[in-house]
Amino acid sequence: MIPKNVYEKSLRSFLEPILPYLDDPSVSEVMINGPEHIYVERKGQLSQVDARFPSQEALLSALRNIAQFVGRPLDHYHPILEGRLPDGSRIEALLPPISPDGPSVAIRRFSKDTLTIDKLLSFGSLTPDSAQALSAIVGAKQNIIVSGGTGSGKTSMLNCLSSFIPEGDRVVVIEDARELQLQQSHVVQLEGRPADSRGKGQITIRDLFKATLRMRPDRIVVGEIRGGEALELIQAMTSGHGGCMSTVHASYPKDSMSRLETMALMSGIDLPLSALRSQISSAIDIIVQVGRVRDGSRRVTHITEVVGCDEHNNYKLQDLFVIEHGEEGKKPAFVPTGVLPVCLEAIRIHGHDLPPAVYAAAKRRQR
Hints:
Helix content: 25-40%
Strand content: 15-25%
Mean pLDDT: 89
Oligomer: single chain
Largest sheet: 9 strands, mixed
Structural class: alpha/beta
Radius of gyration: 22 Å
CATH class of the largest domain: Alpha Beta
Order of helices and strands: HHEEEHEEEHHEHEEHEHEHHEEEEHH
């Protein structure tokens, strides 16, 4: 196996045209559309840069180098590469024939400095009141889904929420490709593995999840739910494994419930829809919705509680915090709605409480 420092030096030589952007902390993503068209994202805004790879073969050589190190096949029969660069950045590469105009690459960069709640507060992504509420919710072992679109900051938010997990808890993390940087000392990190060039050796998220349940986890964190593993997570949440966390791709809290439903149905296990909805609404306690606002910044837009299903078997949700967009030029405000959560008793039992602003909003709501 190639030593990491040797691989890193080799890879930097292959990626020389884009090194200035990989080393620039203000760049959050580098996108390569063939050797001559390269774009970067800064503060939510895309711009094309002058960097070029000498040829398509030079770009392919860099991708083969990455594939060799991460132990994943990359050829005509396996034209999709998912992996991590030495600095932890996530890379997704598509090759011809599925990308007819040449290799298409997206490199999602992650800050070398661990993102903390204090930093989110300084960025304006959260308010002190909402941070205190989330701390109480995590401390009370509520099951949380972080929902958002691509590039909205779901992984970063999950990292920050993990800082509220008590230090004594044993946390098992399951991911396709390692991205999470949990801030506890007792963390077991598990990573899936794709099949090799002969189609053997695959370890799926579902495989890891089944193994995890026998490893005495206090909390289970799944980096992202993409498919049938949703059902395993839902069943774990409803069978005594409190404090689970994960992320899903969805634009609004209500959409995240539909996404979980769809992915659970991909498990291959035949369940009546009414039974599945009942399980999902019982499993998920809180949805933290993240997204981009008008200025391109990433913010928490909703903290929403799932309170079950109604008589028509539709999901019942109630917003605890929402973002309010003021006049043009003014920053949006993230405020409590005045709704007291159903989980308030559990929060108090675990020795936590909500901020005074939540109770003040509740009083105003009752007038």
